[in-house]
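Take a careful look at the sequence and tokenised backbone pasted below. I need to know what the token row says about the fold.
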Amino acid sequence: MGDVLAGNHAVWEFDRTTNSLIIRFARGMRTPRLWHALGERRIPLEALSGVGLTVGRRDTVVLHARVRVGADPLMEAAAGQLREACDPYRLVLPGGGGGTARATAFGETLRERLGPAGPADRFLVRVPEPRAALKAYDARLAFDGGAVTFHWSRTGATSAKWKAGDQRYPLAALAGLTWHSPERPGGHLRLWSREAAGDPRPDHDLASAVFGVGYGAVHESLPFAAALLAALRARSPVASVPPQRSWERIQHLAELHSAGLLTDAEYRALRDRFTAGA
């Protein structure tokens, strides 16, 4: 094994034998619940495009690894919606007592071994182990590895969903998905069918599950969405991307860029590609 760097609620270790970054999340009352759900992750360095060091609040330093677009199903599903404190690629350390020097040295060690900066053509990070079922406000979702089933809630589902009955979607019938964080208004998980577009209203769309207070929390719904996305990508690398108009994709790229998940070069390259295909 290799270098180890301990920060607030997490420990980063560089494994020289596999050229990967091992991130272990500590359990505790102040640890984000998403990190509890992740537990431990092994990140191949070829999945990272960069490592940055910034000054945080209260005399802390922040080591932040940037993930290549398309390399991690969790971050791909999150699409820049995670709060900064929940970012699993962000490590906060005390600035005093040599903390800055240790973080700088650790970052340099990783930086020397990073892969290419451009988008990845496949997922490189193992998908987190999801729950077998996800409880949303208007449905209970189950994923058996080959299909997703929506069991509507008698009290939460709209009459349109309840009258239509439970729905089952084989992966072969799906083109992709989008996850909208339950911490934002209108949180939901939507599956995209290959054949027809659903109702734009999530509470009426038969391939959408609506979140709410106490339903579909980030630490439950995001790993679930990431597992679905990884399964779709494994089945059809191209088709797992949700069907979006060019302007929507460009807006999405701008959000990723603002969140620090895309470098300037990556943002410009992808923006130009989508603009050319408009």
Summary: Helices lie at 33-38, 73-78, 99-111, 159-164, 218-235, 246-258, 264-276. DSSP finds seven helices and 14 strands in the chain. The radius of gyration is 20 Å. The CA atoms of residues 20 and 93 lie 21 Å apart.
